[in-house]
Amino acid sequence: MPLNDLTADMLTRIRNAVSNRARQVMVLDNKLNRGVAKVLHEEGYIRSFETIVDGRGGLIRLDLKYGPDGASVISSIDRVSKAGCRVYRGVEELPKPQQGLGIAIITTSRGVMSDRACRESRLGGEIVATVC
To answer: 50 pairs with which residues across the strands?
Structure first.
């Protein structure tokens, strides 16, 4: 079964794994998914990630993070820019999910960054997803 939007598939797998309280989730590897995983790790939403070479397209193993009482760190993760409707914003128009408690993942000319890093670098770009 061919997948057209690997990032939407990644976000759905994370959402399903969090709802099942899984410790790890495997997603398909590509450059954008590695960037999203890197931002999630830097912002503290996942413990770690590792790229696995399997001879085909490759996989990324994400180690999900939970609080001391077992509550999930990720409460919602949503795709914003889709294949049929891309969403681009300048630095002044970048969203602040939950008034700054969540993050937006942005693709810029300098790679994949969080909305906080984009504001520091004064960069806009395509809004990939929001995480709360």
So the answer is: 61
Q: Indicate the average pLDDT of the chain.
A: 96
DSSP string, 21-69: T-SEEEEE--HHHHHHHHHHHHTTSEEEEEEE--SSS-EEEEEE-B-TT
Please, how many CA atoms are within 13 Å of residue 35, restricted to the half-sphere of its CB?
Answer: 19
In angstroms, rounded to a whole number, what is the distance separating the alpha carbons of residues 42 and 81? 22
Residues linked to residue 62 through DSSP beta bridges, in sequence order = 25, 49
Q: How many CA atoms lie within 13 A of 62 on its CB side?
A: 31
Cα 39 from Cα 23, distance rounded (Å): 19
Distances (CA, A) of 123 to 19, 27, 37, 128: 34, 28, 20, 15
Q: Cα(36)–Cα(46) distance, rounded to whole angstroms? A: 11
The model's pTM is 0.95
HSE of 124, CA atoms in CB hemisphere, 13 A = 9
What residue type is assigned to position 17 of the chain? Answer: A
Residue 45 predicted with pLDDT over 90: yes
Residue 2 has pLDDT above 90, yes or no: no
Let me know if 71 is exposed, middle or buried by CB neighbors in 10 A (0-12, 13-18, 19+): exposed
